[in-house]
């Protein structure tokens, strides 16, 4: 019963996020800067400031509903909790993480046992993982 309730909650949460005006625009930034060089690709994987704390590198997901994990460091909290490359982090501690900035803010402020809502990229299942930060 709890798993079904969690799936219903997450499905509602995703639907709500899909209709908000704060969803990121996912476009490749190919503009040139003033020095003649090309600006950095906005879809490239970025190391988030909280990555040392949690042990992941992430990228905005293509659908805009979460952040895709591109690298996991073994022995760090996220890796120990079971987060894997390809997983999509939807929320951290009940806060939506539809952008890298939101994920960084949520992880930077996290302490103790923190619930993380994750979608498994292979199965499509959505579940909660508890990540313990020191």
Automatic annotation (TrEMBL):
Pfam families: PDZ_6 (PF17820)
Residues in PDZ domain copies: 55-122
Species for this entry: Nitrosomonas communis
InterPro entries tied to this protein: PDZ (IPR001478), PDZ_6 (IPR041489), PDZ_sf (IPR036034)
Protein name per its UniProtKB record: PDZ domain-containing protein
Matches recorded under SMART domains: PDZ (SM00228)
Keywords of this entry: Signal
Signal sequence bounds: 1-27
Taxonomic placement: Bacteria, Pseudomonadati, Pseudomonadota, Betaproteobacteria, Nitrosomonadales
Origin superkingdom: Bacteria
